[in-house]
């Protein structure tokens, strides 16, 4: 799903029933019913940091957070009034080791602060609980400093994460969430760009042709989905963790959401 920061602000300020926000939040009702019935033990949450845990002095391509708890970052206007995020360090350390042995060089971090890239998806699915009902393994992907990882590399990482989770010796229900996007550009002459046709093709491809999506080059994201549209490679980590054939449970697409396109897709294994 997208992780538009204004979505979190709308929830925090009680504006979800306003004319502007109501159509967007209405699309989350199905998602919240679905997650209530299938609430996992742990979510591997793929997101990008927005200069809160990392800055230009340290930009890992892939980083896994193995801490016990993650504070909510102050992104310039105070921390969001949401609970801290509980980690799953045993699973995180296992995934780290297994994925590194599988050929991926992950940076290991501890109790890093987490920003809207991680907290907005939790709000989308769980609204405003006193405590998040899941533990989270944060997996940060660089989509800020060029070059970000390719779609193919992200898709392959998802496959490696699945192998790691399946080899863990504790019986856990694990979901993988990919966040970011969809088409949007926040600066320059094309600020405000939204390409709904590209977004629709991407959502269809997530269901039916993930390998084709994985081959999309960086320049195509930049040209067709805007400079921030490159965040969509993070969805491919989630898709790589699933079966080749999946079932589309829910799709929600809304424009505009704070001058961006908001996309949301729930997939389950199986035809």
In words, what does this structure look like?
With 271 residues, the protein is of the alpha/beta class. The protein has a domain of 142 residues: LigB-like (Protocatechuate 4,5-dioxygenase, Chain B). Helix 4 packs across helix 6. The protein is globular.
- The number of helices is 10
Apparent shape: globular
CATH superfamily membership of one domain, which one? LigB-like
Give me the CATH architecture of one domain, please. 3-Layer(aba) Sandwich
Structural class of the helices, strands and pairings?
alpha/beta
Mean of residue pLDDT values: 97
Report low-confidence residues grouped into runs of 5 or more.
Answer: none
Q: What composes the largest sheet?
A: 5 strands, mixed
Based on DSSP secondary structure assignment, what is the total number of beta strands?
Answer: 9
CATH class of one domain: Alpha Beta
Q: Spatial order of the strands in the main sheet?
A: 5-2-6-1-7
N-to-C order of helices and strands:
HHHEEEEHEHEHEHHHHEE
- CATH topology name of one domain, in short, is Protocatechuate 4,5-dioxygenase, Chain B
